[in-house]
């Protein structure tokens, strides 16, 4: 009887781990990196008056590599938090070239299909008023 209960618990834990692996949480867009201008994520804005300059964006689409897939299944996808920080730094450089003091409403979108993956990272470049 003990072995039936034990094997039932093991099966339950295995199924629980399998299900939880399918619902990985999103990797955060930033690990706390400090940029030369203020960066406000989606639905955030500066507490100072500002003027909008324009939206800046970077994007990329790639074919999935053999390392990312096996037997028709995707093994991993997306960008690490460190890669997202580097991408955000590229977006910051574009905004700085426009004379921005900050980027607001920064949004990262990742997409994938059976053969391709890609991302779009965009934000609104703004200049502070006053001061």
Notes on the protein architecture:
It is a single chain. With 131 residues, this protein is an alpha+beta fold. The protein has a single domain, classed as Hypothetical protein apc22750. Chain B (Translation Initiation Factor IF3, 2-Layer Sandwich), CATH 3.30.110. Helices cover 29% and strands 35% of the residues. It has 2 helices and 6 strands. It has helices at 2-22, 81-97; strands at 38-41, 50-63, 69-70, 73-74, 102-112, 116-128. The strands form 2 sheets. Strands 1-5-6-2 form a 4-stranded mixed sheet, with helices on one face. Strand 3 and strand 4 form a beta hairpin. The longest helix is centred in the N-terminal third of the chain and has 21 residues, at 2-22. The radius of gyration is 21 Å and the shape is elongated.
SSE blueprint and pairings:
Elements (H helix, E strand, L loop, with lengths): L1 H21 L15 E4 L8 E14 L5 E2 L2 E2 L6 H17 L4 E11 L3 E13 L3
Key words describing this protein structure:
about 130 residues; alpha+beta; 4-stranded mixed beta sheet; two-stranded antiparallel ribbon; 2 helices; about 30% helix
Distance between the termini: 76 Å
Sequence of strands across the biggest β-sheet: 1-5-6-2
Q: From the structure provided, what is the oligomeric state, counting identical versus distinct chains?
A: single chain
Q: Supply the CATH superfamily name.
A: Hypothetical protein apc22750. Chain B
Structural class comes to alpha+beta
% residues in beta strands:
35-45%
Mean pLDDT across all amino acids: 77
- CATH topology, which one? Translation Initiation Factor IF3
CATH architect. name: 2-Layer Sandwich
- Figure out the total of helices: 2
> How many beta-strand runs?
6
